[in-house]
């Protein structure tokens, strides 16, 4: 009979871990948190030293009942929740909910592992420990501070702006950062500047070289306006272009460091166009375990919430052995690439890496869904590259004298690809490989033409999810586990809208931010929030009692809320009016937001209670009946394109329809990447979008 019970957080881990343990182990899941603060009240006794009031989460009763039965049968109970302070707190809540701390006849242990592999799980069982109450207290403090901010300020926003809004300790700062960037962009005044290129021909070369204006002799000179440009062009009339200096050298490009949560989210956004939420969801699946052909259920990556770039010696050694075997000894790194830290890094975990480097993307591709595979491939390539040699470039820089002025040429040639044989980032693809041939000092080049160009300085870029995560990390706002939910919340609250990856603040977001800056300046102050994160980390390492942090925080918050309730004026945010007419009373319907997203409602409520589904038009007529093509969703949430005249019209397409007709059979076509495909499955015609565009332009 089994006498050991292992309790994990996720049911997905159960299957993975079960196969590592013998028959005397039962593995079961808590399905995340089992206790929390009540939703109906603050849940913190501010009159009695901020004691939290925990209750069993609704729906967790059956899970706890099942776990209690398993506990009765077991002699040893291993709490194996995630290896971070959230996981530590879940273990503590399980201990309290199951009353494990009152059981004298049972042995209760806390175990944790950074990866779900046989070695890691077995090793953790050999080194059990007690629950780390410092980590639990750090999580309690964070949860209580978040609850205090949310439950104190959100009702104020409901009464002064509209119901359904929320404020948050981290989300409000993230919103402030986006608003501040928007203000910078709006206040930006562009400055004029000019560039000047010289197209130069040299003997033995058919295509001209493009040299860039540098300055007066060896002194760098910027061209600010047309007058300065004209003066330079005047000085270049009739001059000879002579090679004045040629320098050859070598440049190395260091390999990247392994992913942290933040850098994984940033790179997945840039390369794969994944949202932070999607990246974390997929990474969770890779961590918990996936069925791999020939291997069974395997946890493919290490723990996904980390800000450390450290790699275990065993993993480092295995990676270098693999690289030597697969690529050659010359590709193996001789020294490790180390990231400079800013003092805010928590080194409890390793970087995100594959658990088994020999499971290359090629080997697992058949077993993984497309997006899971793409994320795993990104992690595998990044980690493998981090254990490889730098790339080496041969560089040539040339200075060309032109009268009193000078131009420069620069080129580089990749002579050893190193880590780039595995992993090439977007910026690496921009490397110039133009060979300058055998230019020598004193060579004369003939001018083909001068190409001046006017430019204007650009405002700061709008934040994307990737750049916002990077900025939050750099400023110490939030922690790896908070980036994705923070961004998801401000998008869901409609404080921010996302268009072509860019984040734009909405009118609602501006109104909320104004209130927060006016009434709660410390809550949205980046320095204050970063300092609070630092204090929470100090709670985690046992340096600061958690209640000290809460005691110093709540009185000021309470006072600010009391003042705001008296002084703040009501803000009105107008609903978005549509051209859809209410068939009951004739008014133009407005866009409203519910638990399942947008819907249309009559502004005459409560007299007129008419509502309709919100249908997003794509600006195309239905090829069957001429109605509007709209974006719809199945019951499971999958997007498709349908006709607004449904059910009378049965038009439906999984791909976005195009107005182009098939040149072969005349059916409508659908978009797929850079191609247009005929919707008639018996036709099979494929056309390149660029070709059609060029034909229309011609």
TrEMBL record:
**Catalyses which reaction(s):** ATP-independent breakage of single-stranded DNA, followed by passage and rejoining
Annotated spans, Interaction with DNA: 166-171
Determine if Metal-binding is one of this entry's keywords. yes
Its domain of life reads Bacteria
Tell me, which GO biological process terms does this entry list?
DNA topological change
Which residues does the entry assign to the active site, renumbered to this chain? 303
* Gene3D superfamilies linked to this entry: 3.40.50.140, Bacterial Topoisomerase I, domain 1 (3.30.65.10), Topoisomerase I, domain 2 (1.10.460.10), Topoisomerase I, domain 3 (2.70.20.10), Topoisomerase I, domain 4 (1.10.290.10)
Toprim domain residues: 3-116
Q: What are the protein's GO molecular function terms?
A: DNA binding; DNA topoisomerase type I (single strand cut, ATP-independent) activity; zinc ion binding
Q: Name one Pfam family in it.
A: Toprim
Q: Which InterPro entries match?
A: Topo_IA (IPR000380), Topo_IA_2 (IPR003601), Topo_IA_AS (IPR023406), Topo_IA_cen (IPR013497), Topo_IA_cen_sub1 (IPR013824), Topo_IA_cen_sub2 (IPR013825), Topo_IA_cen_sub3 (IPR013826), Topo_IA_core_domain (IPR023405)
Residues the UniProt record annotates as site (Interaction with DNA)? 33, 142-143, 146, 151, 158, 305, 493
| Domain Topo IA-type catalytic: start-end pairs | 132-561
What EC number(s) does the entry state?
Answer: 5.6.2.1
Keyword terms of this UniProt record = DNA-binding, Isomerase, Magnesium, Metal-binding, Topoisomerase, Zinc, Zinc-finger
Name the NCBIfam families on file.
topA_bact
What is the annotated quaternary arrangement, including any partners?
A: Monomer.
What biological function has been recorded for the protein in this entry? Answer: Releases the supercoiling and torsional tension of DNA, which is introduced during the DNA replication and transcription, by transiently cleaving and rejoining one strand of the DNA duplex. Introduces a single-strand break via transesterification at a target site in duplex DNA. The scissile phosphodiester is attacked by the catalytic tyrosine of the enzyme, resulting in the formation of a DNA-(5'-phosphotyrosyl)-enzyme intermediate and the expulsion of a 3'-OH DNA strand. The free DNA strand then undergoes passage around the unbroken strand, thus removing DNA supercoils.
UniProt-recorded name of the protein: DNA topoisomerase 1
State the organism named in the record.
Candidatus Lachnoclostridium stercoravium
The gene from which this protein is expressed is: topA
